[in-house]
């Protein structure tokens, strides 16, 4: 395994890990994706799940992930309007990343 | 898969994904680990690989990862002293995370 690392040369900005990290950067990004892997969520549900996040930061992260094609935003014309965020196929392809992170996290002492 | 998400309840700070993200946070952290999965490296090798990182930031990230038990730092008493950074067993257990990130990165358009 280690001898075969990295699986592709990482030069000229072509490193796939660097591209992934560029999309997933930011303290809250992976936690937003974790939550949405459980199904579509409204803004308030995400805010309540992500204890400590500011509404502005959550708005920014959701916009970034929408721009990256990781999630979609659907507004339902109700009163008051209802907005739901859900992962795209690209976003759902992140499940193995989150599973691997969870495995690593379980090996860390709870501190 | 999605129905079973999250694999464990995420409450009371016990979420393994959140614990993993707390250790791996920061723009450069995962790229340092990517480089060290290829074998031990000296400070200058990491700095040259991570184009754009400042020496202070690299020092900070290496100290954070050493504190977290992800890497070890060995100084060889030569003149000038040689310092090598290598992943611990815990750090090497991150290989599946990096592999999954690489898979995701390969599915992104090269921008």
Structure description:
The structure is a homodimer of 111-residue chains. With 111 residues, the first copy, chain A, is of the alpha+beta class. Chain A has one domain: Arc Repressor Mutant, subunit A (Orthogonal Bundle), CATH 1.10.10.10. The first copy, chain A, is built from six helices and three strands; from the N terminus they run H-H-E-H-H-E-E-H-H. Chain A has helices at 16-24, 29-37, 43-49, 55-67, 89-92, 95-106, and strands at 41-42, 71-76, 82-87.
Give the helices and strands, then pairings.
2 copies of one chain form a homodimer.
Chain A: H1 16-24, H2 29-37, E1 41-42, H3 43-49, H4 55-67, E2 71-76, E3 82-87, H5 89-92, H6 95-106
Antiparallel strand pairs in A: 1-3, 2-3
């Amino acid at each position: 395994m280690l001898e075969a690392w990295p699986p592709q040369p990482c030069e000229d900005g072509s490193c796939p890990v660097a591209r992934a990290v560029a999309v997933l950067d930011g303290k809250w990004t992976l936690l937003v994706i974790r939550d949405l892997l459980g199904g579509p969520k409204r803004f308030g549900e995400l805010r309540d799940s992500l204890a400590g996040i500011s509404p502005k930061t959550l708005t920014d992260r959701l916009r970034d992930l929408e721009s990256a094609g990781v999630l979609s935003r659907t507004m339902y014309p109700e009163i008051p309007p209802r907005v739901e965020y859900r992962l795209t196929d690209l976003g759902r392809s992140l499940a193995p990343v989150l599973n691997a992170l969870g495995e690593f996290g379980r090996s860390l002492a709870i501190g």
